[in-house]
């Protein structure tokens, strides 16, 4: 298998994934499909494609690099509960983009990466269920307390 075929397999698989995988995660998915591919080949190709703007490289201090097959301008959010990275479905923040772009030359920056923090839809749903459960428990406790006070007053 030549380099171009491997590169296309990497890019194709990355674009199918919406999990913003690490090179290791992508390797685990590709290895059964392309047995001769190496982890080094994946790393080199991902770096090259990111440098050429074909894909996006997501890297934060202290975290493993992740990759996004969608190179179009968009924001990412990291779930504070499960640590998953997901595309943020929010309108583009043009004023923020303009401000960041104006600061880049002044700060000597060649790029900027803005990541939002919050809860992914799945964790938000779990949190809502927990809040609902706690509210029900509090309501039940209050009802028991009223019944107990009523029993004390009536001597039961």
The CATH architecture of the largest domain can be named as Orthogonal Bundle
Largest sheet: 3 strands, mixed
Q: Which structural class is indicated by helix and strand composition?
A: mainly alpha
- Give the helix proportion (percent range): 40-55%
Q: What is the tally of helical segments?
A: 5
CATH topology of the largest domain: Arc Repressor Mutant, subunit A
Note the beta-strand portion.
5-15%
User: How do the SSEs run, as a string of H and E?
Assistant: HHHEEEEHEH
Q: What general outline do the C-alpha atoms trace?
A: elongated
- How many separate domains? 3
Strand segment tally? 5
User: Order of strands in the sheet with the most strands?
Assistant: 4-3-5
Could you state the CATH homologous superfamily of the largest domain?
Winged helix-like DNA-binding domain superfamily/Winged helix DNA-binding domain
List unreliable stretches of 5+ residues: none
Radius of gyration: 25 Å
Mean pLDDT: 86
Supply the CATH class of the largest domain: Mainly Alpha
Q: Separation of termini?
A: 85 Å
């Amino acid at each position: 298998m030549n380099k171009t075929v491997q590169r296309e397999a990497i890019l194709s698989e990355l674009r199918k994934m919406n999990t913003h995988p690490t090179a290791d995660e992508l390797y685990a998915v590709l290895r059964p499909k392309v047995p001769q591919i190496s982890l080094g080949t994946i790393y080199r190709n991902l770096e090259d494609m990111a440098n050429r703007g074909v894909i996006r490289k997501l890297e934060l201090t202290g975290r493993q690099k992740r990759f996004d097959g969608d190179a179009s301008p968009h924001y990412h959010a990291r779930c504070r509960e499960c640590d998953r990275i997901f595309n943020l479905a929010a309108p583009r923040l043009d004023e923020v983009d303009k401000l960041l772009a104006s600061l880049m030359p002044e700060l000597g920056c060649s790029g900027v990466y803005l990541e939002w923090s919050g809860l992914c839809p799945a964790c938000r749903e779990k949190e809502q269920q927990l809040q609902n459960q706690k509210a029900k428990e509090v309501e039940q406790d209050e009802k028991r307390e009223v019944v107990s006070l009523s029993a004390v007053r009536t001597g039961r």
